[in-house]
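S.,

Sequence below, as promised.
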Amino acid sequence: MEKTFVTAREDRPGEAWLSRFISGRDEAEKWYFGRAKSHTPTALECRNALLQHMPELIPHYDRACALVGDDEVAHRMLSHYRPAPERFGCSQAVWLGKEGPALVRNFDYLPAIVSDRFEMSAWSNVRVIAKAQRPWGGCVDGMNEEGLVVSVTLGGSRAQSEGFSIILIVRYILETCRKLNEAVQALCRIPVALPQNVTVLDRSGAYATLFLGPDQRPIITRLKACTNHQRTDRPSSSSLARQLALLQALGDRSMSLSELTELFLRSPLYSRSKTYPTLYTAIYRPLEGRVDYVWPGKRWSRGFMDFREGEYTHDFG
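The prediction came back faster than expected:
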């Protein structure tokens, strides 16, 4: 099983994005609607929700809607409002030792559904490097040039309610926030559709992990390691084993950032599942404005000052 990844620069979504949206539309519809296309809000309701909670994104949303034309279904998807439940497994950890601060994460998901793009963009007044995800604007992890890093894992439940996909909320944080406290305030304010865990780190080393979910008050923690459960859950054995491995590593005074990265490339953190393999490991260094994307035997290093476009095909075996 192979997947090709690309690093690309795209200041704002335009004709190239539209071409990708059209070619990946079927997958985007499956992600957004699940099996209940008729039960999602109208396009107007979606835009009104976006206007209420993330108004800074409205000019960008309207531009994307104009590109796709008069298409009610597409406009609903592009809002990221009330997406269907989904499953994926991830692990992430905050490193504050030598060479830090840093945030290290594994992203485990269905290879065919995940976008191939690691992208540097400039939607507004700040540049963003992120793992972009369809259908528009989504980021599963990323960093802005002010040194704010955000990464997300699934919260462990398939509960669903009014709210937005976490990947658009991550985009919003990276576009509008500069420091940890700003990001935490936004994450506590914006309704999220599904249970999610979000770790935020800024260049000062300030960090927080938030447990978010539909119809529940956000829980703000100082947890440095996060997988796919929340405090009130009965975690799966896999999620618990990954979190314990990370907590033990972070408690080891002899641990280094390079050793922690190597740990992410081994079991139990690294998944070789045919369904949800670890697609990449990312190491964000906000002080340097740099991120490394890592696979066994391969490393991409990209920064705001020297972001290079490229392509890499990984064999997941």
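The chain has nine helices and 15 strands.

Coffee later?
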